[in-house]
Amino acid sequence: MDSLESKIKSNYGEKLRVRVCGICITDEGLLMVHHTALGKGGSLWAPPGGGMEYGESAHEALKREFMEETHLDIDVERFLFVHEYLDPPLHGIELFFEVRITGGNLKKGTDPEMEANAQIITQVEFKSLPEIQQLPTAHLHYAIQKISNFESLLSRTGYLKNK
């Protein structure tokens, strides 16, 4: 695990990143991606998303990230909120958008910044609110900790910070 954590630190750590994240809610629940070696205890469930690349718009980046992580095509519906993620060595300014699936088939994707033998995405799935609430809080992305319903997540606005 030390090797995987050092690769994460090398690729993402100790630098400020701009990230995009998509809130995708259907009748099946909230679409979430599980990452190993991230978060408290080496487990993190978060909405799909990732870092923006130079010259890429936020919408383009989010569509690319969804395809990489979930194999789903999306439309970006609207901007929701900004979240400052700070969990050393990771620090990111995250732009959250509501998204809608337009095509594709849900399948676990990859993180192209990590080598094939060091992938951190272990699962992609829709989770109901009760399933999310049963997960340890420390294993949930800060933006979805303590949500009481999906509508409260979609009605968030402004600037949020986990620390």
Automatic annotation (TrEMBL):
Keywords on record: Hydrolase
Keyword Hydrolase: yes
GO molecular function, one term: hydrolase activity
Domain Nudix hydrolase, residue spans: 16-148
Cofactor: Mg(2+)
Any single Pfam family the record assigns to this protein: NUDIX
InterPro entries linked: NUDIX_hydrolase-like_dom_sf, NUDIX_hydrolase_CS, NUDIX_hydrolase_dom
Protein name: NUDIX hydrolase
Organism expressing this protein natively: Roseivirga seohaensis subsp. aquiponti
